[in-house]
């Protein structure tokens, strides 16, 4: 029996369907609400319990800053941080998927092909998971504080911030490009002889 040809839309280089993009963006919105909204406010709960922002939401941090935060957290604050970490097992993957799909979908609206444009979203997700592994390790090893591991975690956080910023800026720029393309196309249609 002859194998069925794969429709171009289903190949890796194909364009994701709009419905899939919308579903991924909705999943991202729910995950972001769990993390950052007033309720359940997991990020805010850590800051309230520990007196300072969680390591994950900082631009960077050092081993001494990690030590100071986890000391200030106390038992209740570290428990709040562990709840945040559980939610953060989902957030990076959902965010990376939503940004990658939206970026690729917008890229296709501009007549472009390929997935390389979405690479920053995927790299940011990997860096976020690496950061989470370090934070989990620091929380579970407490009161031991492996200095080198903590320093690596701070460096990974900085890299994540830079790449994640790019991953969010790219689709915003593409939205601007798509809107510009539509406006130009609309103005050309109005100038018919």
Task: Please give a structural write-up.
The chain has one domain. It contains 6 helices and no strands. Helix 3 crosses helix 5 and helix 4 packs antiparallel against helix 5. The chain starts with 17 loop residues before the first helix and ends with a helix. The chain is mainly α and 193 residues long. The model has no long low-confidence stretch (mean pLDDT 92).
The end-to-end distance, rounded to whole angstroms, is: 55 Å
Number of helices: 6
- Low-pLDDT ranges: none
Radius of gyration: 21 Å
Tell me the number of strands: 0
Number of domains: 1
Q: For the residues shown, what is the average pLDDT? A: 92
Give the H and E element order. HHHHHH
What percentage of the residues does DSSP assign to strands (E)? under 5%
Percent of residues in helices: over 70%
* Overall geometry: elongated
Q: How would you classify the helix and strand content by structural class?
A: mainly alpha
Tell me about the largest β-sheet: none
């Amino acid at each position: 029996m002859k194998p069925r040809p794969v429709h171009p839309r289903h190949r890796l280089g194909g364009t994701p369907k709009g419905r899939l993009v919308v579903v991924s963006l909705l999943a991202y919105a729910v995950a972001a609400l769990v993390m950052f909204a007033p309720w359940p406010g997991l990020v805010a709960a850590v800051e309230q319990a520990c007196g300072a922002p969680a390591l994950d939401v900082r631009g960077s941090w050092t081993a001494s800053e990690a030590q100071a935060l986890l000391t200030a957290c106390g038992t209740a604050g570290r428990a709040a941080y562990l709840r945040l970490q559980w939610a953060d097992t989902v957030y990076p993957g959902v965010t990376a998927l939503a940004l990658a799909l939206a970026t690729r979908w917008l890229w296709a609206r501009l007549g472009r092909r390929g997935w390389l444009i979405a690479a920053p979203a995927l790299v940011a997700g990997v860096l976020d998971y690496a950061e989470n592994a370090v934070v989990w390790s620091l929380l579970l090893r407490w009161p031991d504080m492996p200095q080198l591991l903590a320093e690596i975690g701070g460096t990974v956080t900085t890299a994540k911030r830079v790449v994640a910023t790019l991953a969010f800026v790219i689709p915003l720029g593409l939205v601007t490009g798509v809107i510009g393309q539509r406006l130009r196309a609309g103005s050309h249609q109005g100038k018919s002889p």
